[in-house]
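Input (structure):
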């Protein structure tokens, strides 16, 4: 800086400090959000159960049918042989649009109710007025001559 007579010396101004950093946002959900999600899920499950969109049936000998009005699922047979568990299903669509259903099947020991095997059978796009026949197969290590099945349609 040149010296100019009669002008007092002015030291250079220091640089401005950087603006303060904002605190990092919190990660995860707050307690209120978690409680809201749990209550919302419980309410939704309650509505679906009351509406009959989830239903459960048990097969011990003859066939059983569960229906929600549009879709009827019949568990025709439930067998076990050589560690393979089989269940024959019939899905009938009485509704106005194509539907897909998931059928959760469990093979149980008829004596004590222990689960021997389980699977989920997906029956895709059954057109209105049509019937689909499916065979669900699961494997297990326990070989029983007699089994019962329980199933849930969702």
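Output (sequence):
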């Amino acid at each position: 800086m040149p010296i100019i007579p009669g002008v007092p010396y002015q030291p250079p101004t220091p640089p401005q400090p950087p603006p303060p950093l904002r605190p990092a946002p919190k990660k995860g959900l707050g307690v209120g959000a978690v409680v809201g999600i749990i209550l919302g899920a419980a309410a939704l499950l309650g509505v679906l159960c009351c509406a009959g969109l989830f239903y459960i049936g048990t097969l011990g000998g003859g066939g059983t049918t569960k229906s929600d009005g549009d879709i009827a699922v019949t568990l025709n047979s439930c067998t076990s042989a050589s560690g393979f568990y089989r269940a024959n299903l019939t899905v009938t669509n009485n509704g106005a649009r194509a539907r897909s259903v998931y059928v959760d099947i469990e093979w149980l020991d008829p004596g004590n109710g222990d689960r021997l095997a389980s699977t989920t059978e997906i029956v895709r796009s059954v057109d209105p007025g049509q019937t689909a026949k499916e065979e669900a197969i699961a494997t297990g290590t326990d070989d029983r001559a007699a089994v019962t099945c329980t199933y849930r349609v969702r």
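Notes: The longest strand covers residues 115-126. Confidence is low (pLDDT under 50) at residues 49-62.
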